[in-house]
Fold:
Amino acid sequence: MRRNLFLALIMVLAQTVCAQNIEPNMKWGKPTEQELTMTEYPDDKDADAVVLFNKLDVFYGFTDGDFKVYYVHKTRLKVLKPEGKRVADKSIIFQNNVSNSTRREIVTGLKAVAYNMENGKLVKTKLERSMVNEERLDKYQKQLKFSVPQVKVGTVIEYEYRIESDYFYNIRDWYAQYDIPVLYTSYELSIPEWFKFNIEETGSHPTENKTTETPMTLYFNGDSEIITSNVRTFIARKLPAIKGDNYLWCPEYYSNKVTAELAGIYIPGAVYKDYTTSWDDIDKQLLEDDEFGGRLKKSSPLKADIVAAGIPGIADKKERFAAVWNLLKSKVRWNGDYAFWGQSASKILKDGTGTNADINFLLINMLHDADIDAVPVVLRTRNLGNLPLTHASMKYLNTFVVGIYIDGATMTFFDSSAEDGYLNALPAKLLVNRARLVKKDAPGEWVDLQAPAQGREMISILSQLDTNGLLMGKKTSRLYEEAAATLRRTWRLAKDSVEQIHKFQEEDDIEIQEYNMTGRTDFSPTMDEQITFTKQCDAAGDIIYLNPLVMIPFKEAPFTAAERTLPVEFPYKQSVTINSVISLPKGYAVEEMPKPIMLKLDGITVRIGSTISENQLNTQLKFNLSKTFYTQTDYQDLKALFDRLTECNKNIITIKKAE
Structure:
């Protein structure tokens, strides 16, 4: 009996040691017993899946008198929890220009297998061709999508594919981290000696790097030549998952990654060709492109409607812009997608829907017809990371907004995806701090879309407290810019008014007797909300307990993690002012007035104070956030401030009948 227990203990300990020492399996097509039987990843027990092995080899070839670049991907993953089954779905984006057949990318050699242990036997399920779909994203890109079959908790997945690219001058960025942990990953980049690339590695986790050389044979016109390829290898092990949250737009931007930008090509016997690109070069390319700059020169198909409506004669430019936008909005609706290149105006008007780029091109043309100067402002959306500071490349741009000269030389910004917004009140996804204004007859400029963006709330609460602890009052709110857009969006997406009112009641622990709002569908920077309510406070005998703010604006602390390795990004600058006046029952008084509170951090100030006058309890809260980005080194101070703010918002004071 003791011997059996001893053997069982040894087996448990052996399994534990094994689980704690997972080694990468370099053999493709042969998952190990450890990989097949593992139930959790020791370094992240909450992970729903893990990358066991990831390998990307990038190298050059010479075909038909021209260079190609090849990307060979191999990935092995393990599904650990039901949510991890999402890793079975994969999409591969590749370049395929409808108007340029001389340069393209193709995906070849796609294979995928699911490995499962069933009744003690290994069962392999292969991806069938019928499970692969190809679709066009825009005139420049296609997407290959597939879903590995028979994936469940415990499945090991392997897939591989190859991309052959004619864009030898443009090497894709390599990302080492994902939203799941990575046991092993490697990147091998082989570059012919004739090519000069600026290679940059960023990230906070150490990698194993080495540089070697290998021969490369070029065949042309029946002859051959051997040149040297410089090989850079990057290997990383046990990388943690890098996950986003409500305060981080693009976690991948902060992951370990390698970028390679072509600086020039020198072929013996030929002139050195400089490929270094500046943002001025990008401006020029865009303006000379028929599908971008060419679109900006056209009148809109709605010019006659603009003239017939008398829009060019509206003196106030903001009102004139609003008239143009309302006319366009009556013809076309945003389809929910962001893009850089647009379809023809006639197609968009016929379909009645389009991407933000489709509608923005049309909007610029209409504004020109209404005698309002407007230009594109190109950018990379926040969910994809910042535009690089060290080099210029059009590949990083994925959409644009409209820059409008309304008040003299001051530029105002708008985007057709701002269904609930206003001038300078863009969706937070577009509020980047570095966007490029592209002008026809002047140098381009860098602009900060975050600078003018803000959300403001001015709230007044007047209420009467009775001896039973019942508050009866009215809340009046005026919301500005982004705050107004948020409330409009809340109502636009609401299932129905009854359900939405019920949500408001639950959030503030009140009973709503009457709800009114003005400006819900207006194209306006403001919106007003009025709520008549009752709220039952805790009462015991002649003592009443209440929160002087009545409706708590900061109910839960936003930052709960003890540590943070990534920055904190707020969507936009914000301010909230609440003035609460509570009329106390006759003969009742505040037992102890709360002390004033002042919280301050770089970019954040909070003031909370209460006074009593003529049996009225007056409380004011002022919150102001004027900074949207905090580094991870600021996290502890930021967390402490919001913890304290949340705690102060929950302070209860005692109202007692005077003896």
Summary: Confidence is low (pLDDT under 50) at residues 1-19. The two ends are 77 Å apart (CA to CA).
